[in-house]
Write a structure and sequence with these properties.
This is Heme ABC transporter. The chain is of the alpha+beta class. 46% of the residues lie in helices and 16% in strands. It has helices at 29-48, 55-75; strands at residues 3-5, 11-13, 19-22, 25-28. The protein has a two-stranded antiparallel sheet. A two-stranded antiparallel ribbon has the order 3-4. A hairpin with a 2-residue loop joins strand 3 (19-22) and strand 4 (25-28). Helix 1 (29-48) packs antiparallel against helix 2. The radius of gyration is 19 Å and the shape is elongated. The mean pLDDT is 85.
Length: 89
């Protein structure tokens, strides 16, 4: 397995190179792009198909963004493993 050095002197594997740090959490670039594309598509779609005057496009765009978030959270599963340790371990 090939090793790459980070700026802080840490060593990361080839797999870890595909991750980016977002608000203190490591995220795969591919998954981030998919979820951003879904949320933008649903929000923009809701804004464009909104009927009526001024507040309707905003409301349907926000609803589309929420639907995009829900769809992306169903499609993209978390990749973390959480292990609990007792205090005496």
């Amino acid at each position: 397995m090939k090793q790459i050095h980070k700026q802080g002197g840490e060593i990361m594997n080839e797999e870890e190179k595909n991750y980016v740090d977002v608000w203190g959490d490591n995220v795969k670039i591919k998954d981030l792009g998919i979820s951003m594309a879904l949320c933008i598509a649903f929000a923009l779609g809701g804004y464009i198909i909104a009927p009526g005057e001024a507040p309707q496009p905003l409301i349907t765009g926000l609803v589309g963004g929420v639907i995009g978030f829900i769809v992306s959270s169903i499609i993209i599963k978390p990749k973390r493993t959480i292990s609990k340790m007792r205090e005496d371990d």
